[in-house]
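lol forgot to send this yesterday, sorry. C-alpha cells for the thing we talked abt
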C-alpha cells in the first residue's frame, strides 16, 4: 500500500530527543531537511540538543516544534495543512505527556490544568489531523498544548482554525506556525506559563504540492495575535490581524526565512484583508 502523501518523506527512524541524548548525528539533520512542516524555515533555529532546553527541536510526522522546558510549553509549533491531512477520524481526547522529551525533564499532565480558568488549548489543532487515529492522537501530547482561557480557545482562535480548514477544502495548501507569547502567570505542579496572547502565521498557497518558489510577493499571509482574555470570545478573528513583521518584533523569531528577501519583505509587511 502506498505511503500517505504527508508521510512519504518520513523514513528516518528513531526519536529526535533520543538522537540528542545519546550524542548521535545525521538522523536529526536528515529529518529537519525532509520534514514538510519546516519547508519555510525554523523560526528560532531550534535544535535537538540537551544544552538548548528552552529551544529544543522535536520533529514528528504530524508537526514540528520548539519546546521550552522552563515554560512547560512549546515556543512554536509548525505544520503543513492540505486535504491529505483531513478525514473523518473522531477527536481522541487522550491528553498525555510527550514521551519524545528527555526523560529527566518535568512531566506535564492534565492535573496541571486543574485551574478551570484555562483550557488545554491545542496549538496544532486536533481538527487539522483527522486522516487517521494516529495523526489525531499525536496532537494531544502536552508539548502541543498551552493554557488558554475559554474565551480565546473556544472563540476567535477556534474560528480561525475552522477558517483554515475551509480554505483547504477550497483547494488551498497552508503552512502554519503558532504559539504563545508573554507570561501572565503560572499554573499547576509543573508551573506552566500562561501566555498573555496567542499568535499564528498562515501562509496560503493556491496550488497544493508546490515548493517555496510558488510564493510570490502577492501570496496571501494571515498573521494574528489574540489576547488570552475571556473578553474576546465573541469577537471575530479578523479583529486581531497584524503583520508578520510585527510578530517577529514581538517574538524575536524569523518567519518564512527561506524565501528570497524581496518576497519575504513584501508579504511580511502587508496585513491580510481577506
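and heres what i got for the seq, position by position
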Amino acid at each position: 500500500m502506498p505511503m500517505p502523501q504527508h508521510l512519504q518523506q518520513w523514513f528516518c527512524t528513531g526519536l529526535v530527543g533520543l538522537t540528542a541524548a545519546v550524542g548521535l548525528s545525521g538522523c536529526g539533520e536528515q529529518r529537519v531537511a525532509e520534514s514538510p512542516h519546516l519547508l519555510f524555515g525554523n523560526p528560532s533555529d531550534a535544535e535537538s540538543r540537551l544544552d538548548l532546553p528552552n529551544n529544543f527541536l522535536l520533529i514528528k510526522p504530524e508537526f514540528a516544534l520548539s519546546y521550552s522546558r522552563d515554560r512547560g510549553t512549546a515556543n512554536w509549533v509548525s505544520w503543513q495543512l492540505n486535504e491529505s491531512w483531513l478525514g473523518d477520524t473522531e477527536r481522541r481526547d487522550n491528553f498525555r505527556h510527550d514521551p519524545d522529551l528527555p526523560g529527566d525533564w518535568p512531566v506535564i499532565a492534565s492535573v496541571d490544568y486543574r485551574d478551570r480558568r484555562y483550557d488545554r488549548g491545542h496549538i496544532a489543532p486536533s481538527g487539522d489531523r483527522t486522516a487517521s487515529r494516529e495523526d489525531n492522537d499525536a496532537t494531544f501530547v502536552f508539548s502541543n498544548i498551552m493554557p488558554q482561557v475559554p474565551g480565546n480557545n473556544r472563540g476567535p482562535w477556534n474560528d480561525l482554525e475552522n477558517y483554515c480548514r475551509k480554505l483547504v477544502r477550497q483547494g488551498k495548501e497552508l503552512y502554519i506556525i503558532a504559539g504563545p507569547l508573554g507570561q501572565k502567570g503560572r499554573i499547576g505542579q509543573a508551573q506552566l506559563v500562561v501566555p498573555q496572547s496567542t499568535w499564528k502565521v498562515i501562509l496560503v498557497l493556491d496550488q497544493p504540492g508546490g515548493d517555496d518558489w510558488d510564493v510570490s510577493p502577492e501570496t496571501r499571509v494571515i498573521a494574528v495575535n489574540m489576547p488570552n482574555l475571556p473578553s474576546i470570545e465573541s469577537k471575530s478573528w479578523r479583529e486581531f490581524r497584524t503583520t508578520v513583521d510585527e510578530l517577529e518584533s514581538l517574538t524575536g523569531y524569523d518567519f518564512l526565512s527561506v524565501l528570497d528577501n524581496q518576497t519575504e519583505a513584501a508579504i511580511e509587511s502587508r496585513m491580510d484583508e481577506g
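The mean pLDDT is 89. anyway ping me if u want another try
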